[in-house]
Specification:
The protein has about 300 residues and is mainly α. The protein has helices at about 20-25, 35-45, 50, 60-75, 85-100, 105-120, 130-140, 145-155, 160-170, 175-185, 195-205, 210-220, 220-225, 230-235, 245-260, 265-295; strands at about 1-5, 10-15. It is globular, with a radius of gyration of 20 Å.
């Protein structure tokens, strides 16, 4: 991955700087006037979250992201302004997601919840290009009551694009009861299984909910494999790509190995997933300590 940083055209490869060193450099570029520069900075800042930020320094990482994005997020707000640049329009969702989901900023989450509740009563309350972001931020700290309200909205929604955004938000909840309800939607028949499956896929991308998804796949294997086309069954293993330790690598192999052996594409998918997890384990062994040391200063 090559990152373009700075209006002067400063280039560096993430392979040439350690993640810890990159985190130290990024504040110089987060307020750049170039959207490409900011996007690259955010790519690097977010890249450490999943498997290099330990629980012990998670609050430090959240403070780092909030400091990195706070001023720009405040300037951008949640609503498009008359005459604003296209760069601001395109950056707004990513910056606010960073503040509300990655940094867990209370004010950002509160505003997203307010806007979500307003949108549930009036669809014009949120700009079209910000709807998915607003709903996802609200969901990240949302309760079962909000889940139920969004589920009901999804059932009524006729616009497939909007329904997809709502279903993505249903995969952003971290409340365990809401997560279980989200997984239950996949086989509920309320939505096309290909749409509802996106809820589980989104949940598998968050380390806070990934284990719940894996447990659900294991206990629901028979009905899932019966309901899904073969290529989708073969793809269920991809829900485990975020794990980054030897114990989970072994568990993935033990569970999916015999079940995917005779599924078209299954063995190949399993091999790729095990390779991805193995690479992550190696990266973590080399880089986690440096990221931890850097974040301890925040």
């Amino acid at each position: 991955q090559i990152a373009l940083l700075g209006d002067t055209g400063f280039l560096f490869s993430s392979g040439e700087l350690s993640p810890a060193a990159a985190l130290g450099v990024l504040p110089r570029f987060a307020d750049s006037s170039s959207r490409l520069v900011v996007d690259s900075a955010l790519d690097l800042a977010y890249s450490v979250e999943d498997n290099l930020v330990t629980d012990a320094v998670r609050p430090n990482y959240e403070r780092y992201i909030a400091k990195l994005l706070g001023a720009r997020a405040q300037r951008l707000g949640f609503a498009k302004r008359a005459g604003e640049s296209m760069d601001d329009t395109l950056l707004r969702p990513r910056v606010q997601r960073g503040m509300g989901i990655v940094a867990a900023d209370p004010a950002t989450r509160q505003e997203a919840r307010r806007l979500t509740e307003a949108w549930l009563h009036d669809s014009s309350a949120v700009d079209t290009e910000m709807l998915g972001t607003v709903l996802s931020i609200a969901a990240a700290s949302g309760d079962v009551a909000l889940f139920d309200a969004l589920e009901a909205a999804a059932e009524k929604e006729q616009d497939r694009r909007v329904r997809r955004q709502i279903l993505e938000a249903l995969g952003r909840f971290r409340d365990p009861a809401a997560v279980e309800k989200g997984l239950g939607l996949v086989l509920s028949g309320k939505f096309d299984i290909r749409e509802a499956g996106g809820v589980a896929w989104t949940l598998s991308g968050d380390r806070a909910t990934r284990q719940m998804v894996f447990d659900w796949v294991k206990r629901s294997w028979d009905p899932l494999s019966a309901a899904l086309p073969e290529q989708y069954t073969a793809g269920l293993v991809w829900a485990t790509t975020g794990f980054c330790d030897a114990a989970h690598r072994d568990e993935i192999s033990a569970f999916f190995g015999p079940r995917l052996a005779k599924v078209s594409g299954g063995p190949n998918n399993l091999e790729k997933v095990l390779d991805i997890v193995g690479i992550c384990i190696g990266r973590r062994a080399q880089q986690e300590a440096g990221v931890t040391a850097f974040l301890q200063a925040y």
